[in-house]
Specification:
The protein is about 20% helix and about 35% strand. The chain has about 180 residues and is α+β, with helices and mostly antiparallel strands. The protein has a five-stranded antiparallel sheet with strand order 2-6-5-4-7, covered by helices on one side. A four-stranded antiparallel sheet has the order 3-1-8-9, covered by helices on one side. This is RNA 2',3'-cyclic phosphodiesterase. It catalyses: a 3'-end 2',3'-cyclophospho-ribonucleotide-RNA + H2O = a 3'-end 2'-phospho-ribonucleotide-RNA + H(+). InterPro entries: Cyclic_Pdiesterase (IPR009097), RNA_CPDase (IPR004175). Its EC number is 3.1.4.58.
Length: about 180
């Protein structure tokens, strides 16, 4: 099977471990997959496969992005799909113009390539659980700590199903002011 890729922001270890602890405290048994804390991230752009062998060139284009570091704040838990039987349970982050701007720069940097990035609207989130397992509707409180964490880089990840970590860094880019 051909490798798949995405561009994302890795959640720093202290914040990821706190989210993992909060999820453990919920005693959630409604989903088939639970994101390991080492794999917690915010996807900026899902690429999928690289059918034309352009990932190296794309990484070069991403290295030209200039963007200042910024902070994100977790706010609450939300879901994708039917709230009673959600496909995904995630930690939401507060609105962040710098995050939206970075995502737009990443999308623009990849425009010249024949990669086929996901065209869905950008909804910043940290997946905590996925793939509804069935059973009674989800009806529990799911509190998470409000936390701030720095965003100082973004990364191209290769997906390795069945591994921990599942998301392998291929190239990372430090955020810094324009020169």
């Amino acid at each position: 099977m051909q490798a798949h890729y995405f561009i994302g922001i890795k959640i720093p270890e202290p914040a990821a471990k706190k989210l993992d602890q909060a999820r453990t405290a919920w005693n959630l048994k409604s989903h088939k997959r639970y994101t390991h804390w080492v794999d917690m991230h915010i996807t900026l752009l899902f690429i999928g496969s690289d059918p034309h062998g352009e990932i190296q060139e794309a990484q070069q284009a991403l290295s030209k992005i200039r963007h200042a570091p910024f902070e994100l704040t977790t706010s609450t838990v939300k879901t994708f799909g039917n709230p009673a039987t959600p496909r995904i349970v995630y930690a939401a982050v507060e609105d962040s113009p710098p995050l939206i701007e970075l995502q737009a720069k990443v999308r623009e940097a990849l425009r010249p390539f024949r990669l086929n990035p996901d065209g869905k609207p950008f909804v910043p989130h940290i997946t905590l659980a996925g793939k509804w397992a069935g059973g009674p509707p989800l009806d529990i409180e799911m509190p998470i700590p409000a936390m701030k964490f720095p965003v100082t880089e973004f990364t191209v990840f290769r997906i390795e199903p069945g591994s921990v970590p599942k998301y392998i860094p291929e190239a990372s880019y430090q955020l810094k002011e324009s020169v």
